[in-house]
Amino acid sequence: MRTPTPRRLRFTTLLLTAPMLLSLSGCAVGDKDLERWERTQQGPRKLYAVATHEKYGEELRLHALESIIKMPARSGKNIALPVLIEGFHDDADDQDKPGALSALTDSTRKVMIEKLTPFLEDEMKKAPPQKKADGTKDRDPTVPVKDAAFAILANEPPLVTNEAIRTRLKQAIVNWVVADFDARLDAPQKYSVEQMFKAIGNPAVVGLPPLIREESSKVDRITALVSDLGDPETKLKSANQLVTLAKGIDSPQWIQKKTAEVKETNEKQGRKDVPEAALQNQLKAYQDQELFKIFSAMKKIAQKPVIDYLTGVAANKAASEDRRKNALAALEGHVDKTNTDLLNKLSEIAADDSTPDGVRDLAFARLGELPKDQVVPRMYKLFDAKKWKVRWIAGSLVLKSITTKGLPEFFAHLPRGGAMGMTEFFTYGGAIQTMDSGPGEPKTRDAILPYLNGKEGTPKLVALGYFYKGKKADSGLVEAQGGAKEPAPKCAKEDDCGWSCDIPKEGKPAESESKDIVTVGDFAKYCVLPSMNSK
């Protein structure tokens, strides 16, 4: 751990000159003096003198260090840390002075820090300020103590050489944060919670899972810390807490509990007679809003309870489309190739005719995260789906995952009849245009030509799609297919895959009209060739 290099604070009124030291040493100093000096203008330099001068007794020097830590801010600045640790500039002799702890001998410092630790622990245990009737809180007086404790821990070169003391200070800081996590996470302080926790590591976050509850407004920040710093056990506990929280929100009891709250909000906004149906829609939207926050937090904790829960939501046909989509979005980056149950459910979602397109697209996106050798076999299984759009997305993923060597298998899996969208062939052809060729494999143009010149309509349509918006020099190859008689696929209206292209209107070339595509030759003449000749 290392603290940022501080700017040296200049103390014009806090200088310890020789006459001042002599004056201070000429009279007895007691605890009441130290307490008074915490708030006086000349107090900091007097406390520094007592803390660093060997003429004073050990207990008095210890109390002087405690008083330095408790000094209130001056002009909005925390002067305790410069006097105690960081050091300051002495204008009297134009020299930098070390902080009080750094100025001590090694042996004295060791004793003082060990004796100072119980004071720091006790101060940080003090109850946090409570909310007032107006919802505000007083300034938390324990923040400067916490900052001092962390500064002592983080200083370079090290001030604490006793590992047991280091452990105690770390735990005291962690306990301080957890005691009022939501407030202290964003409280004005020298060292942020994230900064301190990153320095402490896993021990800092082991106490965070129980804080994952509905009352907390910082669930996302908690899970981020656990994700970054937690060990597997802490992450698993957090995952279980998140699932419990999500299930609690997704319950009739939660709706019942929030009904009065929503009604009160409506009344405050002048909507006193909201119909019951509208009220239920408000509650459902509120519930979704809170659930989606939890889904976002779940994305950071990829443990089995979270994966199983999100998969269940995504597969639940009774859930809203938005809820299913958000669940699938939260699974991003967490598709484990060994999780057979997850992979099977994603495949089922993608293949199900009743799955909304937005949900299906995300299911395919998650499957697309698999290694290529696992993506391709799963996608081929979806080529027989009733909806052509399922095959279209599956086929697109296959073409992104293979090289030209895999094209024969791709063409073999394509159907030779049934509903096929014209968009499929443009998409497949475009994907092949950008496909890589492995060592010793044919280039894409060479690989596609046998299918262009073949006798089967479906492969020929894919090959023609390859030349869509292609080089004008290749237009002769496409023009040669203008007489191809193989029938184009036919679609029912509900299939949403009609075949037509816009062509110039006869006698009015500036205008266009829709031309039905009946044959493969029509596709070549009216759809592909014009896109090449326009170059």
Describe this structure in words.
With 535 residues, the protein is mostly helical. It is 57% helix and 4% strand. The chain has a domain at 9-129 and 139-204. It has 27 helices and five strands. Strands 1-2-3 form a three-stranded mixed sheet. Strands 4-5 form a two-stranded antiparallel sheet. Helix 14 (252-268) crosses helix 15 (276-298) and helix 16 runs parallel beside helix 18. The radius of gyration is 36 Å and the shape is elongated. Residues 1-7 and 13-23 have low confidence and may be disordered.
In short:
The protein is mainly alpha-helical and 535 residues long. It is built from 27 helices and five strands.
Query: Number of helical segments?
Result: 27
The main β sheet shows up as: 3 strands, mixed
Structural class: mainly alpha
Strand content: under 5%
Task: Specify the helix fraction band.
Answer: 55-70%
> Which regions contain 5 or more consecutive residues with pLDDT less than 50?
1-7, 13-23
Provide the residue-averaged pLDDT: 90
Radius of gyration: 36 Å
Topology:
Blueprint: E1 9-11, H1 18-25, H2 31-37, H3 43-52, H4 58-70, H5 80-86, E2 88-90, E3 95-97, H6 100-103, H7 106-124, H8 143-154, H9 163-179, H10 181-185, H11 193-200, H12 219-229, H13 232-249, H14 252-268, H15 276-298, H16 304-315, H17 321-330, H18 340-351, H19 357-367, H20 372-381, H21 388-401, H22 407-413, H23 422-433, H24 444-452, H25 457-466, H26 475-479, E4 500-505, E5 508-516, H27 520-533
Parallel strand pairs: 1-2
Antiparallel strand pairs: 2-3, 4-5
Helix pairs in contact: 2-4, 3-4, 4-5, 4-7, 5-8, 7-8, 7-9, 8-9, 9-11, 12-15, 13-15, 13-16, 14-15, 15-17, 16-17, 16-18, 17-19, 18-19, 20-21, 21-23, 23-25, 24-25, 25-27
